[in-house]
Amino acid sequence: MDHLRARCVGPSTAAHPLWVSDEATFIENVWWPALASSTLKATTVNFYRQMSGFYVLPHIGQLRLDRIEPTTLVALYRELRVNGRRQRRGGLSERVLGNVHVTLTAAFSYAQQHGLIQSNPAKLVHRIDRPSRASRQQKTRAWNAEEARAAIDAARTERLGIVVL
Fold first, then answer.
1. What is the helix, strand, coil percentage profile of the chain, to 5?
2. Confidence band for 112, pLDDT divided at 50, 70 and 90
3. Is 0.70 topped by the overall pTM?
4. Is the distance from CB of 129 to CB of 69 less than 8 angstroms?
5. How many CA atoms lie within 13 A of 46 on its CB side?
6. Rounded to an integer, what distance in angstroms lies between the CA atom of residue 60 and that of residue 76?
């Protein structure tokens, strides 16, 4: 644990009894190397690195680890819902937002287990403010007979219509 403190926690002062470096330093210099040497599958490690590198660090990477609160994460999720895409306009899907939340929960759990923060802010985000599993699942239903007939009739008028159905 001392080697983690050496990387993330600076000298104690009256103003900052437990100074913790920014989120980017923690993720890049502590959490990612710990993931790489863990028993997690390589795909899981890569998933966490992508989620944190693409969506977390650009938005809250400059913030001190011990200053990130549930309200910070709620604001992050709202921003990502509207402007989260990296190469195009628009927001992220609820599924990707859920993946970001899972990643943050894992990162903050690691920091908490190693004494770098007191509590995990991701676990304190109220359910309504974070991506829900139900909102990520798309509702599908089969066509009724009338809808199926209408689709077949419409497909008959198109050159490749039946192939598309």
1. 65, 0, 35
2. very high
3. no
4. no
5. 3
6. 8
Q: For each of the domains in the chain, give its residue range(s) and CATH number, in order of start.
A: 2-140 (1.10.150.130)
Q: How far apart are CA 46 and CA 98, in angstroms?
A: 16
Say what the alpha-carbon torsion angle 38, 39, 42, 47 is, to the nearest 10 degrees. -70
Instruction: Convert the pLDDT of each residue in 3-48 to its tens digit.
Output: 544 445 444 443 333 345 677 788 888 888 888 888 889 999 999 9
Measured CA distances, 62 to 25, 129, 130, 147, 158 (Å): 9, 22, 22, 53, 54
CA-wise closest residue to 75 among 120, 121, 118: 121
Does residue 140 come out as left (phi exceeding 0), alpha (psi in the -120 to 50 range) or beta? beta
Encoded tokens for 8: 């993330």
Q: How far apart are CA 128 and CA 71, in angstroms?
A: 13
Distance CA 46, CA 28 (A): 13
List CB contacts of 15: < 8 A, sequence separation 6 or more.
none
